[in-house]
Model the fold of this input.
Amino acid sequence: MAEIKSSHGAFAFSGKKRSGPEDNDGDDGVVAKKSLLIPAVAIGEDPAAALASARHEFGEHGGVNMSIEASATFTVMEPETMRRMFSGELGPDRDFFIYSRHFNPTVLNLARQMAALEGTEAAYCTASGMSAISSVLLQLCSSGGHVVASRALYGGTHALLTHFFPRACNITTSFVDVRDYEAVRNAIVEGKTKVLYFESVSNPTLTVANVPELSRIAHDKGVTVVVDNTFAPMVLSPARLGADVVVHSISKFISGGADIIAGAVCGPASLVNSMMDLHQGALMLLGPTMNAKVAFELSERIPHLSVRMKEHCHRAMVYATRMKKLGLKVIYPGLEDHPDHGLLKSMGNKEYGFGGLLCLDMETEDRANRLMNHLQNYSQFGFMAVSLGYYETLMSCSGSSTSSEMNAEEKALAGISPGLVRMSIGYIGTLEQKWAQFEKALSRIQGPGLLNKN
Done:
């Protein structure tokens, strides 16, 4: 991999323990940047293989698990070293750390895993998914800048682009249907538009974005492509398909335990380094710092993400197929009648299926609430809760919950029905046990108008 130069160091390093107070730079006195130890990833390669090839961080005393570096600040052996660290001569690539808001060894290890997972040069982990999204956009866009974004987005992201950025940052957004390539092309204002932003699989409508084509359109006009891949880790690898930056809410599938809030930015070394610049870096100056103990927890979960995702996706496929046969109106990209089925099949990583989420369109909020109430309180099929990626099935009526920031017109344009029930399919229990619980609840509430034939 080519050498990466930065005034403040890189973020996924080979690292070494300092053996003494001196910091040997070689005969010429020049600090040599170490190459990133993120393995080259071929298009189509299983992300699990890339994770297995990434550097393994051992514990300080030889433990198979890394040690947690919980320090907020770090000591130096010589006074001159601190000056050199602040000037950018010495950094985490040589195992010199200043302060954990800047770089922390344990968080950097998680970043290496995220970069390997997404096949990017580097990554940086943050305190939440929204902090990752907002920091990237603020780094790429200045006052007066413009974003082109998908109409179908998580409600929080939609609110950030619709309300907060115009008011606080003078950054405007044009929302388009990303399936309409001509509309995307026409929305880009050359010289002003800085970012094309969309979700690989949209929240909650499960529309699949054509990452290669959208990236080509954006790059032809000099626009950076930022993709939220929260719904499809392992299933899709946007950076390998042409995207520049991939963001995640690690809180979801990657964590898997519904007990951690975290985010990640995966992309070029130059971008992530710029985000940590002492004078202009959005991450450095806004400070959405991940706690080292959280990073340790997450780094222990990523190795079995591939196993979990395969089961999430397998059960979602089985349930979607059976629900459709019962006459329910099911939205799931794995079904052949889904308009994006072929697209996802062509882009997706082999053996990971079509995602762990499905939607049932009950048409009205009342019907949606009746269904969820019985599924939780009568048959114990799942829980009424937002978020996704948990081992239990989580259900929510998107229009009145995770997409409530959008007005009625915006929801209609995004394809969000008032009765759309988003289900994150879990893997606890046996498949047949959980399916029996679904049928048990459904039998209690069937009546005229409940089953909407596809």
Remarks:
- DSSP finds 15 helices and twelve strands in the chain.
- The longest strand covers residues 193-199.
